[in-house]
Amino acid sequence: MKFLGFNVSSKLTGFSLCLMVGILLWACSGQDKKQENTLPETKICSMIFIDKSVSVNVDKGFANEKYTKIINDLVEKNIRGKGDKLIVYFIHENTAKAKVAEVISRTEMDETDGANANDSEALKTEFSLDLSREKSIFKQLVVKQLNARNASSSNENTDILASLELIDKEAARGYDVKVYYLSDMVESMKGEHRRDFHKNPPVDDAAAVGWAREDASNLKASLNNLTSIQVFVAKPFEPTASTRVNNPAVSAYWERLFAELGVSTEVEEL
């Protein structure tokens, strides 16, 4: 007779047949376990957009301290090991071409299967130390970009909408994308179908929502991968800033825009 594709003699004893079944089940379970252990983990891509337009000054004081802490926290949380990525862009007139840094974690945990308790613990400690050193380098790199000055004429405009296509491309690559805007979120671009919130800000939430719907309808066709991204906004304003300085309708515009573009989680302000 045949058993699972193998020829089995009818003279096999019950014990032999049970033994063969046991071996086959053990082999199958071993394969399943191996496949389970080798399944790829979704990697995180942290995208940091640092506003370098004239309306945002982070040289010192509250904004610098706030942004430095956010950078340190996000690197600590999102860089977990080999494959996790961090990209930094400047926000100004030419945001789409303003990538200033991109780094990928290379720290990898060595295989602990078969290692005794002491060796396993040593490998974990070594991984933790290596990852900590790598995170420290990443933090310094981003903070350096935070403190870099933009003295060119590109600081006269703010193209935040250009970041959307950049985000969409990373999400299309299969990353778990987390987006951090270190910005006042005041879009300021000239031209048809563009927004200039410096000259013509939304006066209330109703206006902001209307503009967001209109802009989203023009953008949807080219943005197909934003559903699962997470968006975090950190404005440079102190908690006591007036609504004239920190216009809540601007926040309403971005919250509605991302929702209209299919982002499933709410924008979180840090």
Automatic annotation (TrEMBL):
Which keywords belong to this entry? Answer: Signal
Signal sequence annotation: 1-27
Task: Identify this protein by name.
Answer: VWFA domain-containing protein
Q: Which organism is it from?
A: Flectobacillus rivi
